Amino acid sequence: MKNSVWYDCFMETVFARFSKKSLLVEALMSLLHLEREAVYRRLSNRVSFSIHEVVKISSEWNISLDEITGKSSGKISFLMQPINYLDPSEKEMRFLQDIVQSINDLKDFPETEFMDICNKLPRQLLAGYGSLNQFYLFKWMYNYGNKRKPVPFAQVMISEEKRQLTVDYYRAIKNVALTNFIFDRMIIANIVNDISYFHSIQMISNKEKELLKKDLYALLEYLLEVAAHGCYPETQNKVNIYVSELNIDTNYSYTFSKRKNICFVHVFDKYEIYTYDAGMAADFKKWMQLMKKSSVQISEVDNRSRIEFFAKQRAIVDIL
């Protein structure tokens, strides 16, 4: 089995999951319940992974066997990873940690490009603001939680481990060499309307509303700085910000690098469906780049449009 092309591709994919071999060894020991020496024998091709082990690794790490084997049904498979963001299991925490690690690894690939088209504030921006991040978790629980009685904003508790992981994610995303955002013109109005609604039904207190308002002002100030200089101030990595003249129906994103290409459709507020299919990722990139034609760039080049846009967003926050 070790000499077959698909198995070689599988091994390449497994090695690409972690930046260091030691991390890969630890992960495989935990996943397969193997001793360290047994894992090293498999990674050095002295022993092949069994079919059962290949299936388990592929399932746990969302590795597409169709893509590896080159056997395609003609259909494109999208994956979905449900996660309890408030009380993640050990498996879910490992998945989230893998995401942060994979983003950190992208700093070694200067050609990497990330693009997000959004009608809701994207997670990589919200993650830096405690109250706003908590609000999106609260909203998700309100809409999709299985508790009979809705949990008010004040009772949404985030563990310290998850809070730190969110901070790590917020820092890691700035390591991407090139980032493009295309915002819906209603992106701030949408969240302000949501906050106003929950405040009106007393799920958010006056004090909590003011904390959310403070975070929104801080986020707008940060985005204005990013737009003015065309980069993240923390890393100096390039950022282009556009505002769409057309309505955007949901959030879409892609990440392109020599290591891995992936595209996402963000659904249910805190989940996303995604695929590593090369053809679909290329189509996503082409379609999303075309959205620039109906958008105005407000980073660096158009001072007037930038000032007008952020002034309007602050005025919207003022009404809270």
Number of domains: 2
By secondary-structure content and strand pairing, the structural class works out as alpha+beta
Chain oligomer state: single chain
What Rg is obtained from the alpha carbons, in whole angstroms? 21 Å
Q: What is the N-to-C order of secondary-structure elements (H for helix, E for strand)?
A: HHHHHEHEHHHEHHEEEEHEH
CATH class membership of the largest domain: Alpha Beta
CATH architecture of the largest domain: 2-Layer Sandwich
Helix content: 40-55%
Strand order of the largest sheet: 1-7-6-5-2-3-4-8
What spatial form do the alpha-carbon principal axes imply?
A: globular
Quote the beta fraction. Answer: 5-15%
- The counted number of beta strands is 8
Return the average pLDDT rounded to an integer. Answer: 85
Cα(first) to Cα(last) distance is 63 Å
Largest sheet properties: 8 strands, mixed
Find the CATH topology of the largest domain.
Answer: Endonuclease, Chain A
Uncertain runs with pLDDT below 50, 5 residues or more? none
Please count the helical segments: 13
